[in-house]
Each structure stands twice: as structure tokens, then as C-alpha cells.
Amino acid sequence: MRWENLTENPAGNPAGRATDPALFGADRVVTRTFDTPEFKGVTFHEIRARSIVNRVPGASRMPFEWTVNPYRGCTHACVYCFARKTHSYLDLDTGLGFDSQIVVKVNAPELLRRHLASRRWHGEHIAMGTNVDCYQRAEGRYRLMPGIIEALRDYANPFSILTKGTLILRDLDLLRQAADVTDVGVSVSVGFVDQELWRTVEPGTPAPQRRLDVVRALTDAGIGCGVLMAPVIPFLGDHPGQLRETVRAVAAAGATSVTPLVLHLRPGAREWFMAWLGHHHPHLVRRYERLYAEGAYAPKWYQRRITRQVHELAEEFGIGPSRAEPPRRRVSSSQELTPAATQLTLL
To answer: Which residues contact residue 133 at a Cβ distance below 8 angstroms, ignoring those fewer than 6 apart?
Structure first.
């Protein structure tokens, strides 16, 4: 494992340079395993990072500029996860290694607080859960998110969280406190409600219905929660009846919005997913090769078709875009904050 490869902009990243400094020193890595059933076969690499707020590369399609990722690798083990490629920067396997070799930035809360206090920081929106899930199982042990949310709350810094994890409900009081002073967006990822499909493609995640229970709990607590219907998996989760069942369940959970996102297969994820597909659904391999022949994304006509179907169903079941109130900010006498950045919206 080459820890020096873990840079803010690793070589090969469109925004990166081979000379970028490592985010931490190899002498600061502590490797642990835990003798508990939920972490069987999982290795944790605890590191003290040098930075925690990351700028999104300019070529990215993401609608935000800054992210915080307290973990690398994810025990959710989603076979399609686009973040698998990031493990190759450490010479780690992007398949089972991504699922079981988890990098934990144990000093993430203190680093973020220091960053928010800097005069160079102007209170831009920070997105979390956009690379790997910040509420994966490891968070139950390391408890990094409470300190992260507290820092964002104390500096009234707008932020959003995307998760498949039910553990976010542990931090419900902190989210409400933050929402009193700044713009907070929460979305839960539920691409489908098919139980058989869930067990095979997202084996380490809570069941879809449990995630929808999170949506209901957040909504009942006064925190509007949207659903990112992702991924819609071609030929396995895109049948009209499946889409209808999913949107109906999302609406019943009280989601403020539903946004479909068709499966995309970037390098690293593509190889792992196609190997899984060949094992579980070999008759679909050629269809996928044709559908994704032009690259990581499904053709525009297919994406538009899915988007249109989901939006029509959303209208039928009464789901619309969330309408957040303007953020309120708590400003310390020693710090002046700029107006809030626009909240990340998914629809």
C-alpha cells in the first residue's frame, strides 16, 4: 500500500498534478481490526489527515464545489459504486478491497473546525456523502459526524448530506440545531425497493424500507428530506412497474422530492459491476456493452426516458421540489461570514 499516493489531487485526476503533497504521512497510519460480527473481514486504517475540505474538479458534473469525506472505502459494498476508483490511488483493490479496507480520517472534525475559522474561507456550501457514505457502519464506532456537524453549526456554514445509512438519525438533534442557523439539505439514496435486487447489489446497506423510514423520521422532525432515486439500474430496476412501486413508496415516506439518476459505470466501478453482472445475469452482458459503448454514462435518450417516467409518477403521487426557507446565521464577533451559498438541490 502506497500511502504517499493519497493526495488532494492524485495523479491522473484531471485537476491533479503528480507533485501534489500527500494528505498525510505514512508514519501516521494505524491499522486496526475489530473482533465483532459487523466488522468481520474489515480492516481500518486510521490516519491523521492534513486537510479535509476538498475542491471538486472543474470537469465534474457535481452541482457543488466543496466536499468533506471523513472515510475512504465503504462497507456498503454497492457493486456499482463510482468511488471504487479512488482506492487505486493507494494501490488497493477496487473490488473487495474497497469494501473491506477503510481509511478513517480520525481528525476530520478538528481539521474542519480549523478550516472554517480561516479568513480565507467564505462560508461556501459543503457537500457530504457524495463520494463514500459518511454514515456507513464505521461511523457507529468512530463517531466523526457529530463533531463535523457541530463545527458546521457553530460557523453557520451551509451543508448537505446524502446517505444510505440509518445512523444519521443518531445526529437528528444536531441537524435541527444546524438548520436553525444555516441552510441544511438532507437526501437519502433509494434507487429501488426490490428486495432481491437490493440484497445482491447493495449487500452492506440498510434495506430500502429502512431508508425510507429515515426519510419519514427526518420529515416528522421538521427537516425536509428528498430522495435521490439512484441508481436506476438498466434492465434490472427500470421496468415501469418497478419505477411506480419505488416512487409510490418514496411519496408515502413523505419525501419532499424524488430525483432519478441512471447507473453510470466509471473505470474501477465498471470492471467490478460487469464481473458481477456476468456472474448473476450473464444474459445482460451484451446489452450493457451496447448501452454503455460510448463511455461511463447511458445514452441521453435512455436517461431522458427514465427522468420523464419518474417525474410523471412524482406528479401523480404529489411529490414536488423542496422549498427551504432562507438560512439564518449565527455570527461570532470575531468572524464575519459572507451570505449563504445556494443549497444543493437534486431536482
So the answer is: 71, 74, 76, 163, 164, 165
